Amino acid sequence: MAPERATATCYCGTVKLEFPAEGDDFVDSFICNCTDCRKITASMFASNFIVKDKAITHLKGEDKLTRYAQSATIATGNTMENSFCSVCGTLMYRRSTGFPGVSIMRIGTVDDFKLHETKLKPKIEQFTKDRVAWFHGGEGVKQVEGNHYAGGK
Ligand SMILES: [Zn+2]
Ligand SMILES: [Zn+2]
């Protein structure tokens, strides 16, 4: 059976992506509390998942994506390119020079909310050292002090 695919849309519906929610092209799902994620989400943490670029289909609005890349606030020093809907501002995915071939998508953009509870539920929570004191993390999620994808520091 082919891996289940799902869709993700921005707040206004201009941009729509399709991606695998399981299988070899679905890499991981994680929460990040790093200071960069605070700024980029305008919240206290990000809830993300990682899929291979080649498995993502842009169903509509690819030409409406605004790309913004910088490295100044990224803990690893890699350059992170962010792709936003130019109409409503939703961040759809990020791509890092440190992790070529994969995109970091946002759980909150996924249309089927049931997947937020199941296949997309975060497995890792990283940068707990930067987490706000009043939040104690995702239930049953493995806690990592630093960057899980760079050895946990
Ligand atoms: Zn939009
Ligand atoms: Zn982060």
Structure in a nutshell:
The protein has 153 residues and is mostly beta strands. It contains 2 helices and 11 strands, in the order E-E-E-H-E-E-E-E-E-E-H-E-E.
General description of the model:
- Keywords: Lyase, Metal-binding, Zinc.
- This is CENP-V/GFA domain-containing protein.
- The protein has 153 residues and is mainly beta.
- It has helices at residues 35-41, 114-117, and strands at 5-9, 16-20, 26-32, 46-52, 57-60, 65-70, 80-85, 91-96, 102-106, 124-126, 142-143.
- The protein has a domain at 5-26 and 46-121: Beta Complex (Metal Binding Protein, Guanine Nucleotide Exchange Factor, Chain A).
- It has two helices and eleven strands, in the order E-E-E-H-E-E-E-E-E-E-H-E-E.
- The protein is globular and about 40 Å long.
- The N and C termini lie far apart (38 Å).
- One zinc ion binds at residues 10-12, 14-15, 85, 87-88, 90.
What tags apply to this protein structure?
mainly beta; 8-stranded mixed beta sheet; 3-stranded antiparallel beta sheet; 7% helix; binds zinc ion; carbon-sulfur lyase activity; metal ion binding; metal-binding; CENP-V/GFA; lyase
Helices and strands in order:
Layout lengths: L4 E5 L6 E5 L5 E7 L2 H7 L4 E7 L4 E4 L4 E6 L9 E6 L5 E6 L5 E5 L7 H4 L6 E3 L15 E2 L10
Parallel strand pairs: 3-10, 10-11
Antiparallel strand pairs: 1-2, 2-5, 3-4, 4-9, 6-7, 7-8, 8-9
CATH class of the domain at 5-26 and 46-121: Mainly Beta
In the CATH hierarchy, the architecture of the domain at 5-26 and 46-121 is: Beta Complex
Question: How many strands in all?
Answer: 11
Low-confidence stretches: none
Average pLDDT confidence is 95
- Percent strand: 35-45%
The quaternary state of the protein chains shown equals single chain
Shape designation: globular
Helix content: under 10%
Helical stretch tally: 2
- Give the biggest beta sheet: 8 strands, mixed
Q: Which fold does the CATH topology of the domain at 5-26 and 46-121 refer to?
A: Metal Binding Protein, Guanine Nucleotide Exchange Factor, Chain A
Q: Strand order, main sheet: write it out.
A: 6-7-8-9-4-3-10-11
List SSEs in N-to-C order: EEEHEEEEEEHEE
Bound molecules: zinc ion
Rg (C-alpha, Å) = 15 Å
Structural class: mainly beta
Q: Could you tell me how far the N terminus lies from the C terminus, measured between alpha carbons in angstroms?
A: 38 Å
